Amino acid sequence: MGTIKSAGYGCFLQHKQFIKIFWFLTCFLVALLVRIYTIDVTPYGIHADEAGMGYDAWCLQKYHVDRWLNSFPVYLTNFGGGGRAPYMHICVPHLLKFLEKVTGILRC
Predict the structure, then answer these.
(1) Which of these, 104, 98, 99, 49, lies nearest to 78 by C-alpha position?
(2) What is the mean pLDDT of residues 77-105?
């Protein structure tokens, strides 16, 4: 006997894929429009905590200590608050790759 094929299953998968793409593009366009709409009130430069995390990443990459001379810290202290140490340790290998671009941006 022959096999029975479901004619609607392939159509369902295409419809499901279309829904995912539609919502992704919708969210992306809304985020883009909000960003463009508020571009004149967005603060320039970087904040102190971002600069501190960048400096900690550089210190970890170069000297294997953070700015407080803790070797491979589990918890980073950043302007009275805590930092995200796993994120920092992930960023360290990529720092050399993008260091020239970042310093060029920060000097502007």
Answers:
(1) 49
(2) 70
